[in-house]
Amino acid sequence: MRVICGGDSGLIKVIDPQRQSVLFQMGExxxxxxxxxxxxxxxxxxxxIVVGYKTGEIEFYFPGTGQQRFSLTRSELTNIxxxxxxxxxxxxxIITCNDEGLxxxxxxxxxxxxxxxxxxxxxxxxxxxxxxxxxxxxxLKSSVTSFSVGLANVSVMExxxxxxxxxxxxxxxxxxxxxxFDVETQKVVYRAKNVPHDYLNLESPxxxxxxxxxxxxxxxxxxxxxTRTAYHQIRFHDRRAKRAPITQRSIGDCTFTSLIASPxxxxxxxxxxxxxxxxxxxxxxxxxxxxxxxxxMSGSVxxxxxxxxxxxxxxxxxxxxxxxxxxxxxxxxxxxxxLVQRQNCSLVTSEGMNEIESDEDDDDQDExxxxxxxxxxxxxxxxxxxxxxxxxxxxxxxxxxxKLDSDDEGDDDDDDDDEDDGDLxxxxxxxx
Amino acid sequence: MPPSNGSSRPSFMKKSDATARGxxxxxxxxxxxxxxxxxxxxxxxxxxxxxxxxxxxxQEKLKKILKNQARKQRxxxxxxxxxxITQEDKRExxxxxxxxxxxxxxxxxxxxxxxxxxxxxxxxxxxxxxxAWDAMxxxxxxxxxxxxxxxxxxxxxxxxxxxxxxxxxxxxxxxEFCKKKDFTDILVVGERNSKPYSMIMIHLPDGPTATFRxxxxxxxxxxxxxxxxxxxxPELILxxxxxxxxxxxxxxxxxxxxQKPEFTGRRVVxxxxxxxxxxxxxxxxxxxxxxxxxxxxxxxxxxTFRLKSxxxxxxxxxxxxxxxxHRKELDTSRRRFFM
Lengths: 432, 339
Known about the structure:
- Chain B: Residues 133-316 form the Brix domain.
- Chain B: Pfam families: Brix.
- Chain B: GO terms for molecular function: rRNA primary transcript binding.
- The structure holds 2 protein chains of 2 kinds.
- Chain A contains 4 helices and 29 strands.
- By secondary structure, chain A is of the alpha+beta class.
- The N and C termini of chain A lie far apart (66 Å).
- In chain B, 24% of the residues lie in helices and 25% in strands.
- The interface between A and B is medium-sized, with 27 and 23 residues.
């Protein structure tokens, strides 16, 4: 299993938490250059990643080799609150959302990129050999489509793929309730409503910080989703039923900083705190009063990711550790790795826990196999004077005799065995 | 603990001379032998409770004296002393301890830190000291006697600092006022039972806030043979900060004092970190005998800090994110330390 971690000052590291080793390190450190978003460039394959920084740059990397592919610049991309990218044929679509509610969709072709890369390689071969190879930078001219969401403040944006090239966009912010848009028609599909007034008849304050769509990662159900607020509440919505949330629960004292749907059940959710607590909450099980909480984190939980097999949970927190937990089991981490930066986001590859073997490990294992084979060929030496071993020795003798019938070799050994067995048999008869 | 000049007792509490009581000052103590009759008695066989206790007490006394005699004999023979085993030696293995591999990354990160602006400029720091707000009474309590004394000593210790009473302002309002008037740090001293109990340290404009618990605060009244403070800029000594969190706290404390110390003033402030406790001491020193030996004299308050939480950004308990927050479940063993 490989984890790609983005830090608070601009470094991206590819690590193996079981072996506690850093495989690659990408990016540079800079002022205010924290990694805000880390996603797969094409959600169906795991070959390329998109990185969104706080300064407004977007870069593409190959996590398998650690090289940078290209980067995008545009002077008006600031305060990005959401990022999504996918491949459609030979084009790449990128959807971003601004702090003030402006959604922009960029589209550029990948074939042109390949030609540009080849040209640049030829040019550089002509130049001096010591020159550092710079990655391509593409300047985005203008967006293909842009529309404003109509909210004054946007804190989060999430995109869902419903199949058949149909995308839906969910947006929420401070003082603004959630809305879901259809990307092609740019119209509102669903508008949420607030919770009814509390027992003092006061309106409960609104600040939506995060959204997930529930269901297993292969079968996402776009009708059920869950939001977390900055006032330590989780709200569960069902689109088919009604606009207001069905249930709401407030846990603890501190704001929530991360949320993800759990793979076990359609109505379960994992939530992370600003202090370092992480809970697993089930909307249906109202009788159970104890929450399942994960332990040993001392900084705020910035990101939670789930391994595609559904067994492991990976958290990145501001106390500079990346931890791997079991979804159900002991509440303490299986592996924890110290990375020098404050961790912001992470991504998991779909390989299993023990599957990666580097070249060095292969050599060691071959040597070990050879050594193991040698002692097994020798037969164990038995104590002939022990009365317990009598039966085994007699069976061996029979096996030897059967062998002798087939082979005519090894007469000397047989004579020795016969003499010894004869002595022991006499002793036994005397005792009886 | 750094020793003060002379003995640790004040002069009116010294032991009286032995000659005044009629004893011989050159008397040698009796040698205890292992074959003394008291040690041969088997205390378990005595059935009388009171007699048993007497015998056991006397035996323990003799055993102690024997042990000391044996140790002195060993030193005479030339057997070297063993190094003492402390809790620090048995400290749990920690990944966060700064090693040579991490130093480059940390240096680069500190260039773009929240403190980088202060350390690159030449402006001396400007510190504001206030007291805490009482949430139960919903007003600012008048600080008690010991806290007032403690704040007075702090004002002498930290150069370029000033004290303002907390009237009816919330901390977020105070932070806005300070940003307009170019303050660099805020210290808020909280009290409990009319004694200083907690402290909040905020670095402006965007810096982290740290909350501490003060365990012992001794003002100069209780320090024997103390000296008076001066207005020269002091020298800073930061001891024994090993982990990344420790480095960050050391940087935060060094942002309160001005960067260029004046050595003619001969004034030192030390921060010693041991087992997650921060010891704050303030001394005046003098070299003698052509720089071969030093004499020190203590000034000012003695404080021990314990870090409770480190929050990113200025003071905001409702929506703020914590870099480190102490909880009881993190104390898994007595050998685990975070700084």
